[in-house]
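in:
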C-alpha cells in the first residue's frame, strides 16, 4: 500500500491576499508556531507517506526557507523525501506568467514529475484545510471499495454563503458519487463538502493528466469527475473529525481564535495519539514574562518578551509587548514589536511589524485590523 503525496501550495492564494502577498498559502503562519503546510505534511508523514511533491507557482521563497531539507518532518532522505516542484517545467505549463486557476492545470504543468512516481497510490491535498487525518484510513477505504477515485468529504449544514465557496458531492448509500455541485449560489441545507483530499492509483492519475493535456481540460471537478462519475467508480470518504477551511481573511481570524476558545478543536488538532503535528524547530529561548506582565487565555510562543497585558491572543516567536501595553483578541506574527502604552484589539500583524508607543488600534471580529509585513505604525 505504498503511496506518494502531492500538495498544492498556491491554489487558493486569492482567498487571503493580505497574507499571501509575500508568501504562498502553504507558508501562511497559523496557531502560534505552525504554517498551513505543516498539517498536510504531518498527516502524510504520520500515514507513512515519505515521497512528497509540493507544486508551487511563485512567492515560494518563504516555503523553501520553512521546509529546508525536510528533516523536521523526517523527509531528509536519500530516496524519496520532499521535493518542491517549480512552475513551468514542461511544455504543457501555462505560457503566460499567471497563477494557474485549478488543480488540473497545476498537475499538467508537472506532468513529467508525475510520470516518475513509482508508488502504487497517490494522495493529493490542498494545504489550507486544517485537520489531523489518517490518510491510511482513506487509502484502505479506497482499496476495499475498488474505487477509481476517492474524495474526502465532510457533512455540514450550509448557508448559501458557505455553499457558494465549496464543491458539494451527492452520493448513494454505498458512497458512490452521483452528482457534483460546483460552488452553488442558492443551496441551503445539509451537504457533503469536498475537503480537497483525493486518493487514486498513480496509473489512473497519469492517465487523467495525459487525457487532459490532449483534450485541453482545465478542471478536475468539471472536466473529469462530472464527465466520468456515471461510468467510473468515484467514491466519497466521510470524514467526521475536526477541520477548518480557510476561505477568507475573516475565516483565518475566526479559526485562529477558535484554538483559544474551543479546547475540543485544539485537542483534535494537536493532541491526537501517534499523530503529532510537526513544524520547523528553532532553538529560541523561552518566553520571558516580566513582573509587570499579565497574560490570560493566550497562546504565546518561545522567544517572546512580555511586559504588558495579553488577553485572548496568539503571539508567534519573538514578539515583544511593551510596558503598560494591552493586546486583546489579536494575532501577532513573528518579531512584531508593540510599544509601551499601546492598545490593540482585534488586530493581525504580519512579520516584523512595529506599533509605536501609545498607539491605539482596533478592528472587529468580522474585519480585523491588519498591519502588513515590516510596517511601522
Amino acid at each position: 500500500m505504498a503511496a506518494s503525496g502531492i500538495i498544492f501550495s498556491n491554489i487558493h492564494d486569492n482567498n487571503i491576499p493580505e497574507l499571501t502577498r509575500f508568501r504562498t498559502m502553504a507558508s501562511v503562519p497559523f496557531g502560534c508556531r505552525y504554517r498551513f503546510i505543516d498539517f498536510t505534511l504531518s498527516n502524510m508523514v504520520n500515514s507513512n507517506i515519505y515521497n512528497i511533491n509540493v507544486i508551487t507557482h511563485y512567492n515560494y521563497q518563504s516555503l523553501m526557507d520553512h521546509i529546508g531539507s525536510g528533516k523536521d518532518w523526517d523527509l531528509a532522505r536519500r530516496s524519496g523525501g520532499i521535493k518542491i516542484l517549480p512552475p513551468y517545467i514542461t511544455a504543457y505549463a501555462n505560457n503566460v506568467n499567471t497563477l494557474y486557476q485549478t488543480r488540473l492545470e497545476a498537475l499538467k504543468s508537472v506532468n513529467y514529475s508525475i510520470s516518475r512516481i513509482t508508488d502504487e497510490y497517490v494522495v493529493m491535498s490542498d494545504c489550507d484545510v486544517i485537520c489531523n487525518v489518517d490518510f491510511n484510513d482513506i487509502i484502505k477505504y479506497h482499496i476495499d471499495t475498488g474505487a477509481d477515485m476517492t474524495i474526502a468529504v465532510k457533512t455540514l449544514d450550509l448557508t448559501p454563503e458557505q455553499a457558494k465557496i465549496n464543491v458539494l458531492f451527492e452520493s448513494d448509500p454505498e458512497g458512490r458519487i452521483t452528482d457534483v455541485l460546483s460552488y452553488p449560489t442558492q443551496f441551503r441545507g445539509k451537504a457533503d463538502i469536498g475537503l480537497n483530499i483525493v486518493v487514486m492509483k498513480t496509473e489512473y492519475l497519469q492517465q487523467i493528466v495525459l487525457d487532459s493535456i490532449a483534450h485541453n481540460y482545465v478542471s478536475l471537478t468539471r472536466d473529469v469527475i462530472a464527465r466520468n462519475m456515471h461510468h467510473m467508480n468515484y467514491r466519497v470518504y466521510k470524514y467526521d473529525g475536526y477541520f477548518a477551511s480557510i476561505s477568507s481573511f475573516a475565516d483565518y481570524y475566526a479559526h485562529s481564535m477558535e484554538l483559544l476558545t474551543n479546547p475540543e478543536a485544539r485537542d483534535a488538532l494537536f493532541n491526537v495519539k501517534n499523530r503529532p503535528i510537526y513544524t520547523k524547530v528553532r532553538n529560541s529561548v523561552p518566553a520571558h514574562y516580566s513582573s509587570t506582565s499579565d497574560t490570560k487565555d493566550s497562546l504565546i510562543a518561545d522567544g517572546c518578551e512580555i511586559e504588558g497585558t495579553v488577553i485572548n491572543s496568539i503571539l508567534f516567536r519573538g514578539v515583544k509587548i511593551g510596558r503598560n501595553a494591552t493586546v486583546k483578541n489579536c494575532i501577532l506574527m513573528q518579531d512584531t514589536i508593540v510599544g509601551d502604552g499601546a492598545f490593540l484589539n482585534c488586530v493581525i500583524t504580519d512579520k516584523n511589524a512595529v506599533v509605536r508607543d501609545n498607539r491605539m488600534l482596533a478592528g472587529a471580529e468580522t474585519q480585523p485590523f491588519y498591519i502588513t509585513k515590516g510596517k511601522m505604525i
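note: The CA atoms of residues 108 and 209 lie 6 Å apart.
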